Amino acid sequence: MGLTYIEGVVTGPTGASRTVRFMVDSGAKYSLLPLADWRAIGLAPKRRLTFALADGTLIERDVSECHIALPEGDGHTPVILGEAGDEALLGVVLNPFNRTLQPARLLLA
User: Fold this and answer.
1) What is the enclosing helix (H) or strand (E) of 103?
2) How far, in Å, CA of 35 to CA of 2, rounded?
3) Structure confidence by residue, pLDDT tens digits, 61-102
4) 16 near 42, Cβ under 8 Å?
5) What topology does CATH give the domain 5-103?
6) What is d(CA 97, CA 60) in angstroms, rounded to the nearest whole number?
7) Could you count the other beta carbons within 10 Å of the beta carbon of residue 12?
8) Rounded CA gap, 62 and 52, in Å?
9) Count of CB atoms within 10 A of residue 14's CB?
10) C-beta of residue 10 within 8 angstroms of C-beta of residue 2
């Protein structure tokens, strides 16, 4: 199985926006923005959470919120604030009724 990528536009609280190429991750409940991207749109940490990676490793990351616009729709969503070396991820879930991927925690307009 190959990797799937999608472009989206992320917008911060001041209206600054940036196009990001996300790797689609059907196992993730949150999306992640790389360090340069979340700083460029003016995000700030709102809370810190612990996340379990696929191999069981626990990591802590700050979380904030932003607006994400995708070809499928757009909405406001929590995002993990990535650190050096972190790749952009779009957390998605499988809709069992029509077998399509839907952004996780994204309120579609």
Assistant:
1) strand 100-103
2) 25
3) 999 999 999 988 888 999 999 999 999 999 887 777 877 666
4) yes
5) Cathepsin D, subunit A; domain 1 (2.40.70)
6) 34
7) 21
8) 14
9) 9
10) no
